[in-house]
Amino acid sequence: MPKLGRNQLCPLHKRRDCCGRAEFVRYPKPKNLSRNGVTTDPDGREKCTPAVLRARKNMLLNRPHPTCAACGEEFTDYRDVELAHKESKGNGGFKHDDRWPNLCLMHLAENREQGSRSLADYLQWRREKGLQVPEVSCV
Predict the structure, then answer these.
(1) What is the largest CA-CA distance in the chain?
(2) Where residue 54 sits, what CATH number does that domain have?
(3) DSSP 80
(4) In terms of residue numbers, what domain contains 119?
């Protein structure tokens, strides 16, 4: 016996919600507060598209003497610069926040070494290892 699809009428009852089929409940989607590639969550966090993140990286690089947040050295090669988050994005990105105060620039290798730690925890770890840490950081 063929199964009835969700939108097919039952030939016996002439309804869609009989014979073991329940009405499909659609939950309302939360309002997408998106503007120009930036989506704002109800709690204030921002999620940006890759194009917007690239533009923010370039704006941070246009400041006079941009330095790495982890080692304090100036950047010499654009390919070695990566946009980093001061507060981690969390496992799976559940705390993902691309707001301006949460962004900084780091060397590629140091950003990968930072991993899912916050910048403050990473700098503390670097101090314990005896590695170079900037005197004035963007934490």
Answers:
(1) 79
(2) 1.10.30
(3) G
(4) 44-129
